[in-house]
Design a protein that fits this description.
The protein has about 375 residues and is of the alpha/beta class. The C terminus is likely disordered.
Length: about 375
């Protein structure tokens, strides 16, 4: 019995000695790594913010606007907000009601209380760029975000829980709230190409595209514009979308009207950035919120296929009839009017209604 007890004590002492030896080796190594990592960041031109743990952009790398440009930007932002207010009142969108256009929607707002900045994420309106920025503000390192295979939106939602209307309004008291607007037809085409044409195999949007093809490919009005692709042609996609709207069905967040999605007539916004002038607009936002050393105005996910925007607009919208285009406009009209866009250029691309009808009957 004494032998067994002595043996057990020896084993305990042995494990303690091993643990102590490992601690003596690993602790210095851990300290060396931490110091080395901080020095590496500095070599790359970054400093570590001791309060947040984020890498800071070096002073020499900060992009900024001149005082004169800042003043001009202030005038631009005020004009956009004034137009928004006027149009909201004109269309009666600033009155709460039972439908989606008149009900405050906080679903896609990201509220960062630490940096006092709030964003309503309109998909396909520089959303990849600013989702990256908001993830950086949430504490993810840029290197991690560039390497991870996880969806940035999912990462963001781990640290930005969805908020109620009351929570949003309380956070707005000491925060800057912004939205990025984009020409609705340009945004829709971008979403169609990204989510339908270039859909990942077996993804939700790949299955959606195949479903649209099965339903719309043989319709008389569309057969002459169908093509031989596994994904729906642009006219097929547009007919599917118009049918969803007419039936009152759920509209995918990539295709839904920004007015319905962010309800800017019912929720206060301090800045309206525009996709077309984003280079200047986001510099202004970053400077006004004091985030020059934390996030940089970098563009991400600039589109697939390497085609120029105007060329793409003409190629795809020339496949639609004037009637189809006007039906689309009827749904996106508030986006056009509130954010000062015009449909006239697109109507020039439209094919005549009788041309489409003759092609269908001839087929």
């Amino acid at each position: 019995m004494k032998f067994h007890k002595s043996y057990a004590n020896c084993r305990v002492r042995r494990y303690l000695l091993i643990f102590t030896a490992l601690s003596l080796v690993l602790l210095p190594l851990s300290l060396i790594y931490l110091v080395w990592n901080e020095q590496l960041q500095k070599i790359k031109g970054y400093e570590i913010n001791n309060e947040t743990g984020l890498s800071l952009i070096p002073e020499y790398a900060i992009q900024s606007l001149s005082p004169e440009e800042m003043q001009a930007m202030s005038v631009r932002m005020e004009a956009r907000l004034n137009r928004l207010k006027e149009k909201c009142s004109e269309f009666g969108l600033d009155v709460v009601g039972p439908d989606a256009w008149h009900t405050p929607n906080t679903w896609e707002f990201l509220v960062n209380k630490k940096y006092h900045i709030i964003w309503c994420n309109v998909f396909k309106a520089a959303s990849s760029s600013w989702m990256f920025n908001f993830n950086v503000l949430a504490g993810y390192t840029p290197n991690y975000l560039l390497k991870t295979k996880k969806i940035l939106l999912n990462l963001a939602r781990e640290r930005y829980p969805r908020v109620t209307l009351q929570e949003l309004r309380e956070a707005q008291n000491d925060s800057t709230t912004f939205i990025i607007a984009r020409n609705p037809f340009e945004r829709l085409l971008s979403a169609y190409r990204d989510k339908i044409v270039f859909a990942l195999p077996y993804s939700f949007h790949d299955k959606l595209g195949r479903s649209i093809v099965r339903t719309y490919r043989k319709k008389p009005k569309l057969i002459s514009r169908a093509g031989n692709t596994k994904y729906p042609s642009f006219p097929e996609f547009v007919h599917w979308l118009l049918d969803q709207i007419k039936r009152g069905n759920y509209i995918d967040m990539h295709f839904v009207s920004a007015t319905s999605f962010c309800t800017p007539c019912l929720i206060r916004f301090d800045m309206i950035l525009k996709f077309e002038s984003l280079a200047e607009d986001q510099l202004y936002l970053i400077e006004k919120t004091g985030l020059q050393r934390v996030i940089a105005p970098v563009w991400r996910n600039m589109g697939k296929g390497g085609r120029k925007t105007q060329e793409l607009q003409q190629q795809f919208y020339s496949q639609l009839t004037k009637q189809e285009m006007l039906e689309l406009y009827n749904y996106y009209q508030y986006d056009f009017d509130l954010f000062d866009y015009d449909i006239k250029e697109y109507l020039k691309y439209a094919r005549a209604d009788e041309e489409a009808g003759a092609a269908a009957s001839g087929a």
